[in-house]
Amino acid sequence: MYNVKVFITLKESVLDPQGAAVKDSLHRLTYNAVEDVRIGKYIELTLKKEDGDIDQQVREICEKLLANTVIEDYTYEIEEDIPQ
């Protein structure tokens, strides 16, 4: 089995109204050291070991379904689950 952690964030050039709202709320709570907030998504996948390139499979999953690559960037980490 593979455990995959996918991190999806808005591209830097895309405005983040949700992040701006959180930043404003933090400032109202007197956390004035916060200069910027960007909101993203975190997704965990568990994939069975099969023939083929796991890295390619994860890229396809991200680009076809999980991330809108026009406005979002993604990164991922793949960990092989070693039975004990």
Automatic annotation (TrEMBL):
Pathway: Purine metabolism; IMP biosynthesis via de novo pathway; 5-amino-1-(5-phospho-D-ribosyl)imidazole from N(2)-formyl-N(1)-(5-phospho-D-ribosyl)glycinamide: step 1/2. It comes from the Bacteria. It holds the Pfam family PurS. Keywords: ATP-binding, Cytoplasm, Ligase, Nucleotide-binding, Purine biosynthesis. It is found in: Cytoplasm. SUPFAM superfamilies: PurS-like. InterPro entries: PurS, PurS-like_sf. Belongs to the PurS family. PANTHER family: PHOSPHORIBOSYLFORMYLGLYCINAMIDINE SYNTHASE SUBUNIT PURS. HAMAP family: PurS (MF_01926). This is Phosphoribosylformylglycinamidine synthase subunit PurS. The lineage of its organism: Bacteria, Bacillati, Bacillota, Bacilli, Bacillales. The gene is purS.
